[in-house]
Structure of Multipass membrane protein:
Amino acid sequence: MNGSKFGKSINGLLVLFLFLAFIIPVVTIFFFDLRFYYIPENEISKFYIYSLIYSTLGILAAIIITIMFRKEERSKIPNTIRLVLGILWIVDGILQFQPEMPYGFLSVVIEPSIQAINNVGVEKFLMIGYNIWLLHPFQFDALSGSLQIFIGVAYLLNRSTKALKYISFISIIWALVIWIFGEGLGGIPESGVSLLTGFPGSALIYIILAVPYILPKLGNIKNLQKYFIYTVSAIFLIGGILQLIPGNTFWTKGQLAYDIYMNINQQGENPIVYAILNHTYVYLLFRENYLNIFMFLLMIASGLFILLHIRTGLILVTVFVGLTWLLFQDMGIYILPATDPNTGLPLLLVLVLLIEIDFQVSNKRIIKGAAQGVPVT
């Protein structure tokens, strides 16, 4: 299979996977919210009127940008990155429109993150965003979701280098705001931070994905490959170190099992996911020390597999991240009120991108070798 056909196959499979992975849980989430979460009718109507108006303006803005830059040179960055970012941002935007979000986002998502931080200065800084949101929760929530819809649609519609550069600047700035205020700096100031439970934060992965569009040298496929290899391997190596730190309590009896237990009784939990989590929780309950050593070794090995460019290892790492997303992060969107798919899915998609880029680089090497009459192994 040549590089272009493989790339198209990857694009098609990713779009199908993301659609199936999101459509059922998103429908489930809204079903339970509208049925069980009470908001006065006048307030919910006001919220959705704001959301509809802002989202419409965002989509129109994305279309205008597409028309303005339709004749510009197309980006050399693999199309898969644009599709992944577009779909992820749109799903995040839709999740922001959950009925409970205007107030629940503060009480269930932001407030616990702030309380878990062990730094007074950081806590006071994050409270600034908390208090601003509290002034006009419906407007800010509608604007937040609509901005994410705009970014996602703009990524899906545009292919030009200039347009994607401008969109990526907006994407990076907003992702940084989310990473700081919405994800509490990816959990870094908290005790118990781990790659298993969401380090370094999904918004930071979005930033990693968007950076190639604003750095011209990453238009070269080999440079792009190196960029992803270094950034992703660093995440796993740092994750391994965090797993060893006693202050993160992963050596404490029951802690890792408890992280899974916290996901089990979520409102609207899928029964299949519930069964998997429950059996895993029971098995791990008294095996923390062995599991923690294994996780440390697995994370370090994952970082080295990526850094040393071992393709088989890369595939195994992808499987590991997928299991982490299921077992420890409850597929992100099942943890209500969900605002994103958590770190596991974006990180998994970056690994799939690395595999695609690896095939493209290998294909170019084969073509170049054939043109020069040199056998390529």
The chain has a mean pLDDT of 80. The chain has 14 helices and no strands.
